[in-house]
């Protein structure tokens, strides 16, 4: 048993789609979250830069004594997971392998699409993982950075969002798939529009949601579950952003249905993230 928090990191609000699943599937567990909104998107950045930014977020959470780390960002998982797993002495869970495993399980014909950031697509992490599991799979990748922009900077429930999704996914009219992996944690915010654009026959895989099954496995394997008799008080969950505190709280609060969500600001000082509670905007 271990009552410390699980730490989550992402380039922005995308990882909250993973947190949402965590709150549903493992409600006893405390949440600490860092979103590097000031430097998002990570998708177009070189892998070594994403690796460096990822370590800065991780180092901040380590100081807060987390018991497990969830890299709730595909781009960061592709760039940093092996390094984090090799160097940290707490369990580290990424979002890509759980998505690969779920897609292989769910696909009927092995025709699998992946929508993700440019960084994730270029890393071939999904592509290689899928082919490793099924040599006969036909994997079609599409970078969709527009969806990250919609999620962070616009109303992701708007008609505008719907049109952006619809237009981008016309690509799959000529590249038929039976299963589509949402290979970026921002994308489940627009899952309804994505399903509508792909049609009801295509199965969507939400990598973030699948990831929580791996988290549960690790909680049990390493005896890290929070005491059930004394579950986490979610008013003590902590959310941090390097960007606008207000905007994070508005979008995050809406997504997690948490009107009281407290979000604190982190300054980027050299290679270190430093808490600055005087920033409230
Ligand atoms: N949410 C992120 C992911 O899962 C990255 C979005 C971005 O910063 O480009 O890949």
What does this structure look like?
There is one protein chain. The chain is an alpha/beta fold. It has eleven helices and eleven strands. The strands form two sheets. The chain has a seven-stranded mixed β-sheet with strand order 4-3-1-2-9-10-11, with helices on both faces. The chain has a four-stranded parallel β-sheet with strand order 6-5-7-8. A hairpin with a 2-residue loop joins β10 and β11 (272-275). α4 packs across α6 and α4 (96-106) packs across α10. Bound molecules: D-glutamic acid. D-glutamic acid binds next to α3. It catalyses: L-glutamate = D-glutamate. Keywords: Cell shape, Cell wall biogenesis/degradation, Isomerase, Peptidoglycan synthesis.
- Binned, the helix content reads 40-55%
State the low-pLDDT regions, or none.
Answer: none
Task: Count up the helices.
Answer: 11
Q: State which percent range the strand residues make up.
A: 15-25%
Order of strands, main sheet, comes to 4-3-1-2-9-10-11
Mean pLDDT over the full residue set:
97
Distance between the termini: 38 Å
Oligomerization state of this entry? single chain
CATH topology call of the largest domain: Rossmann fold
Outline of this structure?
The chain is of the alpha/beta class and 281 residues long. It has helices at 16-25, 47-63, 74-87, 96-106, 118-123, 125-133, 145-153, 159-168, 191-198, 207-221, 245-256, and strands at 6-10, 31-35, 68-71, 92-94, 111-116, 138-143, 179-182, 203-206, 238-241, 263-269, 272-275.
List the helices and strands and how they pair.
Blueprint: E1 6-10, H1 16-25, E2 31-35, H2 47-63, E3 68-71, H3 74-87, E4 92-94, H4 96-106, E5 111-116, H5 118-123, H6 125-133, E6 138-143, H7 145-153, H8 159-168, E7 179-182, H9 191-198, E8 203-206, H10 207-221, E9 238-241, H11 245-256, E10 263-269, E11 272-275
Parallel strand pairs: 1-2, 1-3, 2-9, 3-4, 5-6, 5-7, 7-8, 9-10
Antiparallel strand pairs: 10-11
Helix pairs in contact: 1-10, 2-3, 4-6, 4-10, 7-8, 8-9
The structure holds D-glutamic acid.
D-glutamic acid binds next to helix 3.
